[in-house]
Amino acid sequence: MKQIIFIALMSISTIVFAQEKNYKMTQISTGKNEVWGAIPTADRGIIFVETIVNINDNNMYSSRLVIMDKDKKESILSIFDKYKKIGSPYVSRDGKEFYFIVSGTVHSTIGKNIFKSGTVYYPLQLMITNNTGKEWTEPVKFKYNSDKYSNGDPCLSPDEKYLYFISDKTGGYGGFDIYRSKRNDDGSWGEPENLGNNINTNGNERFPRFDSKGNFYFSSATSSSGNLDLFVCSPDGNSFKEPVKMDKPFNSDGDDFAISFIDENSGYISSNRDGLDRIYLFQTETIKKIDTVKIIETIKVTDTIKVIETPTPDIILVDLLKKDELQYINFDFDKWRIAEKHIPALKNLMNFMKQHPTVIMEVSGYTDCIGKDDYNLKLSHRRAVSVRDYLTTNGIASNRIVVKEFGASKPLIECDKSTSEVDHEANRRVEYKILSY
User: Fold this and answer.
1) Domain residues for 328?
2) In 367-410, which ranges are continuous DSSP H helix?
3) Which H or E run contains 322?
4) In CATH, what number is assigned to the domain containing residue 123?
5) Which residue stretches of the chain have pLDDT < 70?
């Protein structure tokens, strides 16, 4: 008798628990005035800036430094009472060096809000004081201060060999740029150097900071709204890799700035996301993510088996590309920084890789046909690296990403003298494909 051919399928729902890192933001209540620029103290308190507006004096304002202890009790740092406009506090690792900024004495006609917006009423002066063990020394001006431009937002590198700060001196890339000075053997500071256009833009870069791993953070007003957004980039020798814009909840529709760290899992940011400058404590919290997984069990009762195809990640990737849910990204001429408009596409790629944790992805960079071949090859490498850095900064392991660069060797649109800018932009791209899963 001929065998009956059938396949029995049994679908079993199981619950798989996965640990996922998430961040919780909590506003620190400090009264009705605007507050910002919190830095942690050794006894689990914070030092921050409080801005006080006098509505009876043409809305003129002053600011002061406040210390809040671990029990939420506030006191004023009276050693700085003589300064009516003071901000951007920073303390060295051993607590012996204190850096801050004050408004200068020379009047400028450009705007009034000196500390956050990047415009200047009085040129900012970077100040330094030291703790001798008994008292703080009289604050001294940073060697490179000037009445013609501002210096501000100080911080030290993790090894404390460099002082990072912002300045709007001539010769930069835009409004405020980030500079650094190397500490000499005698303790003095060397000639400032601009961090270059990998970090600085034609907008305002503000509030440089480091975490314990040497990652570099700053805020930049590069979006069309002019708001400050937080960026991060990983160290690359004595420099930094391509900056990546941080995701929510660190960034919002308002100004987000002045990040500082308590430890690897917590710290503070300042933001006016709720209308006024406020300080927010961020903390990682572990949540249980529940995924329903269907297990298909095949029971063979014959010598013929029906093939059941399950979509593999490469099929899913191609399908997403066809639907425009996952897009290749393009770049401006001679640039490798990721434009704001392409962040949603990169988030889709990031989510795709998180949903398929065994996928190994190739990220390949390309350029247009303008320029020399060796330069284009390096430029295409930088573009691919900028995508890789975005993914690794947002939780994708670096060993899951293979970077390739092809320069102008594989254009989507063959170019000649009549090639339009639209076609050139199509060739300035990063593509990705799955190598294994």
Assistant:
1) 310-436
2) 373-393
3) helix 313-322
4) 2.120.10.30
5) 1-21, 55-60, 104-121, 223-225, 286-327, 417-418, 437
Q: What is the pLDDT of residue 19?
A: 35
Counting the structural domains of the chain, the total is: 2
State whether 208 and 320 are in the same domain.
Answer: no
Strand segments (E) across 246-277: 256-263, 266-271
Burial category of 286 from C-beta neighbours within 10 Å (exposed 0-12, middle 13-18, buried 19 and up): exposed
- Is-contact 166 181, C-beta < 8 A? no
pLDDT value at position 95? 87
CB 205 within 8 A of CB 218: yes
CATH at residue 410: 3.30.1330.60
Peptide bond just before 344 cis, omega within 30 deg: no
| Residue spans of alpha helices (H) in 30-127 | none
DSSP string, 120-182: -SS-EEEEEEEB-SSSBPPPEE-TT--SSS-EEEEEE-TTS-EEEEEE--TTSSSSSEEEEEE
d(CA 425, CA 435): 26
In this structure, the number of other CB atoms found within 10 A of the CB of residue 132 comes to 9
The pLDDT score that the predictor gives to residue 293 is: 40
The answer to whether residue 296 sits within a structural domain is: no
DSSP helix, strand, coil percent of the chain (3-state; round to 5) = 15, 40, 45
Q: pTM for the full model? A: 0.63
d(CA 302, CA 397): 44
User: 243 with 231: CB under 8 angstroms?
Assistant: yes
Cα-trace Rg, the chain: 27
Give CA torsion, residues 107, 191, 37, 228, to 10 deg: 80
**Which of 233, 252, 286 represents a domain boundary (last residue)?**
286
Dihedral sign computed on CA atoms, order 415, 416, 418, 420: positive
Partners of residue 103 on adjacent β-strands: 124
Looking at residue 69, the DSSP 8-state letter turns out to be -
| Residue 44 · residue 267 · CB < 8 Å | no
pLDDT value for 306: 41
| 334 & 224 share domain | no
Q: Evaluate whether residue 43 is within a structural domain.
A: yes
pLDDT of residue 331: 87
Determine the pLDDT at residue 172.
Answer: 92
For residue 212, the model assigns a pLDDT of: 87
What is the side-by-side strand order in the sheet with 74-76? 34-40, 46-54, 60-68, 74-76
325-349 per-residue burial string, b: 16 or more CB within 10 A, e: under 16: ebbbbbbeeeebbbeeebbebbeeb
387 within some domain:
yes
Who contacts 332 (Cβ-Cβ below 8 Å, separation ≥6)?
339, 425, 428
